Amino acid sequence: MSDSESNEEQERLGGVRLWVLLQLNRWAFTGAILAIVFVVLVATSQIGLTPLRFIVENQDGIEFLFSSFIGAIITGTSIVVTINQLVLSQELGAVGQQRDRMKDAMEFRQDVENTIDEDASPPEPAAFLYELVDGVHERANELESEMEDERDEELKAKISDYVEDATGNAESVKEDLEDAQFGTFEVIWNALNFNYSRKIYDARKIQADHEESLSDEANEKINHMIDTLKLFGPAREHFKTLYFQWELINLSRALLYISVPALTVMGIMIMYVDGNALPGTTLGVDNLVWLTSLGFVIGISPFVIFITYILRIATVAKRTLAMGPFILRESERDEDLG
Asked: What does the record list as coiled-coil region(s) (predicted)?
């Protein structure tokens, strides 16, 4: 396999991995994991190991296995909900603290409105980011218009490439933000797809490399572009924080919903299932294997739900560790960044 084919394969696999971690519905992801575990448990009974019914009859395997689930579910759910409440406690505070938060939020909105020349920015996160990205789009077009009569062909070509990249990225993100609703992952996903850090770096690099060639008007346009891009970082971080809190609430609710049914099933397995339960086979598999495998899957379901939610939160956090003109992911580097 050539290097180009290998890179394409890695990019494809990376895209699939990100789709699973970030975009796949959490309940569908949970169901897929539990289905795989169930199939593995049932299939294992067919490879010639000691029959489950023999183990249950002679070693009390059912009671040993499912009694441990009860303590794990109760303890795990309590810990997760407690951690969630600690995180959400940051939203609580005296009236003075709330007024300061309100003041900071309004000042940020006014800064954005002044920069993108809007009378009032939208209240919805998706619409707010849309207007901010649209402001970047307009600044890029203004910069391109300013460079129409530029005689420095190298500078003109760099500006043209920069504007093409900025407007293309902005148009793609704006199109996806139009129907995005906060609470779904679409808002954060599209915020991640706008690589403002790289655009800040490229704009500053153009200024540094062509300081003497840039006119005052062109330099002002680039500074305006950078100022607009710099506002995207705090906006994205703010909405990311709100999304994390939103997801932690959803995680707590999901665990509370599933914990009581799971505990009930564990109790049924301990109290009523032994080596004499459900004699016979179905599809060539002992009925006790079907029942025990299903009980095991239900027992681990709270833990799997926890994993699927935390995987998304951790992936988003990793991809947004740096704010500003810092690029951590190898895919966004090039030779002149060393």
From this structure: 133-160
Decide if 231 contacts 132 (C-beta within 8 A).
yes
- Give how many domains the chain has, as a whole number: 2
In terms of residue numbers, what domain contains 74?
11-88+250-319
3-state secondary structure 262-307: HHHHHHHHHHHCCCCCCCCEECCEEHHHHHHHHHHHHHHHHHHHHH
Q: Can you tell me the mean pLDDT for 207-231? A: 87
- Under DSSP, the state recorded for 194 is S
* Final residue of a structural domain among 211, 232, 247: 247
What is the rounded distance in angstroms from the CA atom of residue 298 to the CA atom of residue 330? 40
Q: How many CB atoms lie within 10 A of CB 123?
A: 8
Q: Are residues 135 and 236 in the same domain?
A: yes
The Cα 102–Cα 120 span in angstroms is 16
If asked whether residues 145 and 211 sit together in one domain, one would say yes
Is residue 258 located within the same domain as residue 170? no
Residues 6+ positions from 150 with CB-CB distance below 8 Å: 156, 159, 218
Please name the residues in contact with 270: beta carbons below 8 A apart, sequence gap of 6 or more: 62, 63, 66, 67
* pTM recorded for the entire structure: 0.79
